[in-house]
């Protein structure tokens, strides 16, 4: 096999890392190099392809240590039986790449994952060595996210938490049956055991920091996980329920959803087409409802169809309001925060503004228009001092009234700003 230079390795291993979505950095502790000590900084807003409030794009170096792997997971393009071009970095090559990219102001951190080479312990040792060298040898203070390996020795996983801002352990698939079918070499009990150990270590470290200021930080950004959507037959109801269980049991900071993407030379057990990307988007919206809007998994699942799938044409919050119309309309001048959060079109910031404003005056419909982005979606579900929807909330065609009007696309129109 021809020897690859660093640029060729980077091309292969950066492309191989694009399938991993769990690389945001919210929640990491703030560090900087003011005072002439150390190198780099970390920012709590997020790093991987995120945008700060002032419009700055914040990015990180997202690569695999290697795309070689001893496992043969059906859904993975880097599986043992896949006919892809292989490459491998040494730990020091990753360290130098990270430092060089940072010095050129290309990145503010590192997201590092890897295929399994030799053994789980050997691979985990290499990942930890990258983080250790950056922190201890080069005093790097930027963001580091390590993808850990559940089968590795718990002490190695603990070492990852001592050097990384965030760690993640992928559950891979939503159901146990799906994991057994598509990744038979992986075990859901070992994965959950590793997540449980990580949670305990994070909690212990936080307790120690409260008592002793000199206690080391341990994964201050917490842990996250990722589920592949559409590779098996799990429906949205099962995925939502599984995600809530993971949040509750392991104190996860985030659950990421990655729509299955067909790979070259696929296994016969995989679907031939990818699920609609809107399905992934709806799952993220349902995740937000549970995390920030007080919805229970049972309430989110209640919005699914007879096949357990979330509607693709409307968001799950609107689907809930249309299905449970007896809970609406709500009086914006009297309703609790929990009731307001269930109104379609009202986000957490808008609800906060409403609660603050109504302390000084009785809110009218014009006031709500100034406090929200879209009054059209809100009107059928609220009562104000000068507005009552009367029969509007109960109209049979309310869904059609709230959906955006169809528009013919222009063949020669420029692509939208956020197009890939």
From TrEMBL:
Gene3D superfamilies in the cross-refs: Aldolase class I, Photosystem II 12 kDa extrinsic protein
One of the record's GO molecular function terms: metal ion binding
Keywords for the protein's UniProt record, in alphabetical order: Iron, Iron-sulfur, Metal-binding, S-adenosyl-L-methionine
Cofactor: [4Fe-4S] cluster
Database matches in SUPFAM superfamilies: Radical SAM enzymes, RuvA domain 2-like
Pfam family of the protein (one): Radical_SAM
Residues annotated as domain Elp3/MiaA/NifB-like radical SAM core: 59-286
Protein name: Putative DNA modification/repair radical SAM protein
Record organism: Sphingomicrobium lutaoense
